[in-house]
Structure of XRE family transcriptional regulator:
Amino acid sequence: MDCDKIGNLIYNLRKEKAMTQKQLADLMNISDKAISKWERGLGCPDVSLLPELSQILGVNIEEILSGKIELNETIGGNMKKLNFYVCPQCNNLMTATGDAHISCCGKRLEALVAAKAEDNHLLNIEPVENELYVASSHEMKKDHYISFVAYVTGDRVLIVKQYPEWNMQFRFHKLGHGKLYFHCTNHGLFYQLI
């Protein structure tokens, strides 16, 4: 740990929040001398204080410990670069249009990598007027099912959440060319071109 880098980050984050050392110290029930010591690089926060400091300053503990915040490159919100994250514990679904540090159930999640759908995972897609009718014969049991389907174009994403024992069929309003992503709880993320 580099106390100088950590102190500099704490100083900059505190200033962004328009807080004095005393105000930050009062929120944490410590002395303002401790905050001053950290910001001058003469020491680092105790591990027991990191969760509270992280919450007050609005950054992850990892960023505090590294002494820097990694900013994403501006990509203009192109949905074709959408990343999907699924918690293996609770099946919570999260998305991001750029690099992100996402965690759920106490564990850090990695972006899923989509594979091109093969015969056993292909969805049936039929155009019906101005909609796409999507269906699948994929089993929908509690331990093996498709948890979501997402229709992704350059500027939009439509997500339909699926649950075990549901019939895998629904309609999307046709938006043009894009990809249909879907997540099998046992085999991962797949895609089909539309």
Remarks:
- Residues 3-16 form the longest helix (14 residues).
- Residues 3-66 form a domain with the 434 Repressor (Amino-terminal Domain) fold (CATH 1.10.260.40).
- The helical segments are 3-16, 21-28, 32-39, 50-57, 61-66.
- The longest strand covers residues 146-152.
